[in-house]
Structures are given as C-alpha cells and as structure tokens.
Amino acid sequence: MIKIKYTKDDALQRLNAMCESLDSPTTSLESDLSWYLSGASPDPNPSYDPTFTGGLLSSTWSDILDLSRVDIIQCLDINGVRNSMEEIGKVEEVGMRMELDPKFYYTKELLGYVGKGLEGEKVSVKFGDGKGSVGGGPTLRKIRRCNSDSSSSGNDGVIYKAEKWRHWREDDWMTVYEDIGWEKKMDKATWRGSTTGCEDCYPKIKYENYEDDPKGSKDGKGSAREAVRRGGYGSRAELVRRMDWLNGIERGGKNMFDIGVSIYNQNVENLWGTKPFLSKADQMGSKVIIIAEGNDVATGSKWAMLSGSVVVMSSPATCSWLMEDEMIPGVHYLEVKWDWSDLVEKVEWCFDNDEECERIGKMGQCWMRRFLDDEREGILQEMVVREAIKMQKERGYCGVLRGGGN
Asked: According to the model, what pLDDT value does residue 272 have?
C-alpha cells in the first residue's frame, strides 16, 4: 500500500472545507493584530518606563547572558545583538548554545520577526513566563493575564509568538490527519501532565477523601489566584488532588476518566503516584481531552484543539498568541470551574449530548486553522513587532540605558 504524504497546506484546506460547512467565521489580520496590541495602554506616559526603571540595554550576546534571570524587561539593540549572535554561530554548535542559555533561542526567534527597515532599531522585550505588569506599555512579551483592561496588573504588553519550539511545534498540524474520527473515540476524559504551577500551589498531605482537605475548594468559588493567596491550591493542583476519586468513576461499567501525573517537578512531592506517558494518538482516542494551566498556558492546548476531541478547561487566566480569551465556551471548548468541581457533570453532559459535543470539537479545530496558514502568520508576526517598536519609539523607550547588564 502506498502511504500518502500530506502537508500543512493539505491540512489547512481540509479544515477550511469543514469549517465552511459549519458556517465558522474567519478573522481578519487587522482584528487579530488589534488583539495582540490591546495590552498597550493608549496613555503615552505609562507608569513603567524601561529607560529609567531597571532597563538594560543589550547590544551583544554576552550582554544578554549577563542578565541573571529571563523574566526581566530589557532593550535589545537589534543590529548589535544579531551581529554578535552570528559570530557565535560560526564557532559553536546549536546544542552547545542551548546548554549555554535558552535565551539564545528566545532572542533568535524574536529577531526573526524583525522586518526590513527595522534593523537599526531597539526593542523592549520581556522573555520568559512572568505574568507581572510591564506598566501598561508596548513591551513585547510571550503571555499576559487574560483581560482587556490593560490597567490591571499583568494584563498589559504586546503579545508576540514566542517559544515556537515548545508551544507551536512544527508537527502539531499532523494532528488533523491523526484524528481517528468522532465515532471511533471512547466515552472517556483524559489528562496527562506534570506538577507545574508553583511548589506552594500543591498539597503537602494527601487525604483519603479529597474533600477532607481544609485548604481545598469544594464549591468552585473565587479563582485559582485567590485560592493561592488565601493558602489554597492552584487549578492544576486541584485536578491532581481529585485524581484518585475521578479515576474511580464509572459509566456503563467503564472508567470515565484516565487522569495521571507523568512527571513530578518544581519540588512537588509524589503523593499520588505516576501514570505512564500517553502519546497524542492515545489521548485523541478519548472524546474529551482535559487542559489544565500550569506555570502559564498549557503546552498541549494547541494540538488538543486540533485533535477533533473536545477540550475541557476552565476559563483561561493566561493569554498567549492563541488568543485564549477570545475563544467562546460552549462553542470552541467546554468550560468547567477553575477547581474542577463540576468536571464530572460537564463530561457526562458531553457523553449524553454526542452531536453537540462533536460540533464543539470541530469548532475548536476551526479556531486553530488560522495558525496553520504560514504566510498569514509570517505577515502578522512582523506586523506585531513593527507596531510595537513604533509605539515604543513614540514613548521614548530604550533611550539612554545602562549597557552590558551592569
């Protein structure tokens, strides 16, 4: 049998045909650009000005390495840093550079979005997963808190497409062809993940009955951030501590859930055991794929949205290039409370309403189709960086700064 090789363009055409049959609307470049820029306050004098408040001018690769942390606002001299990195590339292997510091890839990626005519500029950027405020200004960043109000802490900055090697993997589009079809999927909800989110977000003691834990949420009130502030747990921790109970629930004599921790990290103690790793294909065999935020956005959310299975998640707290808070619950995904207290109810609804649930899975795929259009994505990425640099210049960013990370 001859194996047919598909391309990303084939996957995009397949999705376009399906989404047209569902009357799923397309979006314009202008509307997407507006969302990415929406965290930059119109105020020309934001409270944070990197020229005077901790701003560091990096004009060489060694300057970037001098920074003690990734999560810090810095100004990159585009020409200087690019020339310095090209010199490094002549003498060192890629693997050695990665071991040297992941900021090499952050920087190289961002420079790849800088179009013609911008080579002599400087750009204010915040690498890493930090969700703190950048003062309402147009500093480029990977993520921000989900909220259109840029005056709120962490809801600001300009989003660019960061960490593609981890969050936007080149083979994710193949999920469209690996989908086995709704009729072959099992009535099951699946999750695999690690214990991210912060060490203090997880229980130190395991209770036989998760409801006996006085720190745990039992009614889904408040938010994950509020829970941690009052001494409770983060959203992913709430899912993990319910794991044993959920895995014991049956429907028609079969387990409804397959939930497990594959790796314990961030100094979280192994209280619930581990489950074997599940491939994408294994997880796509379930009608429901659970997505839980950890440190920031869930890495697997993109391929899961492409899978044809229904993504079940809480209302997103962190937004990235995926534009999470623009997705509509009940249309593109099935929403649960942040502490998963209604997870069983929502999953049972899905299994009892098969056609509606299948449609949500397909509409999730429709949300993702714009990100499979490489030409459109390339244009949009350059537009975002160009507009951010323009706004930064208008506000005097990256003016007189301290050099060399000193």
From this structure: 96
Half-sphere exposure of 360 (CA within 13 A, CB side): 27
Contact 90, 106 (CB under 8 A): no
Q: Which of 401, 405, 381 is nearest to 158 (CA)?
A: 381
Q: Which of 74, 34, 36, 33 is closest to 56 using CA atoms?
A: 74
| Whole-angstrom distance, CA of residue 112 vs CA of residue 402 | 25
Q: Taking residues 148-153, report their average pLDDT.
A: 50
Question: What is the predicted pLDDT for the residue at 150?
Answer: 46
CA–centroid distance for 216 within its chain = 26
Q: Please calculate the CA angle 67-70-74 and round it to the nearest 5 degrees.
A: 65
As a whole number of angstroms, the distance between CA 251 and CA 247 comes to: 11
Side chain identity at 190, as an amino acid letter? T
Residue 97's pLDDT is 47
When the pLDDT of each residue in the chain is averaged and rounded to a whole number, the result is: 85
pTM above 0.85, yes or no: yes
For the segment 178-190, the average pLDDT, to the nearest whole number, is 94
- Helices 103-111 and 78-91: angle between axes, nearest 10 degrees: 120
Contact yes or no for 150/253 (Cβ under 8 A) = no
Q: Where does the pLDDT of residue 400 fall: very low under 50, low under 70, confident under 90, or very high at 90 and above?
A: very low
What number of other Cβ atoms are within 10 A of residue 98's Cβ? 12
- In angstroms, the Cα distances linking 221 to 135, 218, 245, 325 are 29, 8, 21, 20
